[in-house]
Amino acid sequence: MTDLRQKNIELRNTMKQLKKELSFFINVSKALTSTLELDKVLDIIMENVQKLVRSERWTLFLLDGERNDIYVAVTKGKQPEGLQEMRLKMGEGVAGWVAEKGKSLIIRDVLDDRRFSGFFKNKGKGFIPNYVLCVPIIDKKKTIGVLEVADKKDGAPFTNKDMELLLKLVDQAAIAIERSNLYQRMANLAITDDLTKLFNLRYLYRALDIEVKRCRRYSSTFSVIFLDVDSFKLVNDRHGHLYGSKTLVEVARILVSVLRDVDIIARYGGDEFVIVLPHTSVEMALKIADRIKRDISNYLFLREDGLSLRITASFGVAGYPDHAKDEIELLRLSDQAMYMAKSLGKNRVVLASELSVTSDSRR
């Protein structure tokens, strides 16, 4: 009778625990589906990891598909300096091994584990954990990230129960992360040009509006460069539209390589591009346009296709508030300056202020 009572007590305790876990994961699911922003999703994941397994520090890695490695997306607790910039190759360290194999791992003596002891001795000096629990974040049979926790606060080793709880959490996390990534990809499609991957016209107008408002508020300046590829029709006529498209992609790469991250590069349409240069005077914009002009004229296009074409471009430069008081007028004047560069012989840069000089000289 005593055994039966004891079993009933254990069963009730088990049911209470399961009910508690179910409630916890329902709340986590609601939180994860409340946002599409990846940073917020990751914060929710990390917040709930600590509720499940109270540890000294924990780190979430995400897969970089292009580089085929993993990087630190978010970390909590006291960590070694430079961890935030760390990237791991597949198979490197605990997290890299889990990412490569897609398998969970509990390590009870890191330095005694031949797979990882060298890694921790070289990269984890001063922060070598006693115990590590690492689980893969898998979506559609593909590892998209890794969750690693180190050293429980009570000093006990990690258990299979800890691993099971984290696996339940990362199952939900995988869906939320992929939703966020999909949302970001769709958002990017809405503001980027399909061919060149530069910003599109929609984003350009939004960026110009923001820059004008910023400059009005802080009495600042910015400049716009409008450029058009010279005689681009000849490339299409002589070599076909496929090679014409490839040429535009290579022009876009040149622009990206020359300009700053803060600069906004947009494909205006066809073979026309617009560059927005925040905090840039017209004098500096002229120098930038000259450099781009030189880089384009010196570049051999379509070398991989055996053609090695040389092309040039014409440029118009206008600045706020030097030449215009709103974004529409600024774009119009830079466009007109570009067409003047065309009329003057192409492969040159014209400043918007030269338009009035030329107009006056023709009267």
Features:
single chain, 363 residues, alpha+beta, Beta-Lactamase, Alpha-Beta Plaits, 2 domains, six-stranded antiparallel beta sheet, five-stranded mixed beta sheet, 11 helices, elongated, disordered C terminus
Set down the secondary structure blueprint.
Elements: H1 2-32, H2 38-52, E1 55-64, E2 69-77, E3 87-89, H3 93-101, E4 105-107, H4 117-123, E5 132-139, E6 142-152, H5 160-191, H6 201-218, E7 222-229, H7 232-239, H8 241-258, E8 264-269, E9 272-278, H9 282-298, E10 313-320, H10 327-343, E11 349-351, H11 353-362
Parallel strand pairs: 10-11
Antiparallel strand pairs: 1-2, 1-6, 2-3, 4-5, 5-6, 7-9, 7-10, 8-9
Helix pairs in contact: 1-5, 2-5, 7-8, 8-9
Nutshell version of this structure?
With 363 residues, the protein is of the alpha+beta class. 50% of the residues lie in helices and 21% in strands.
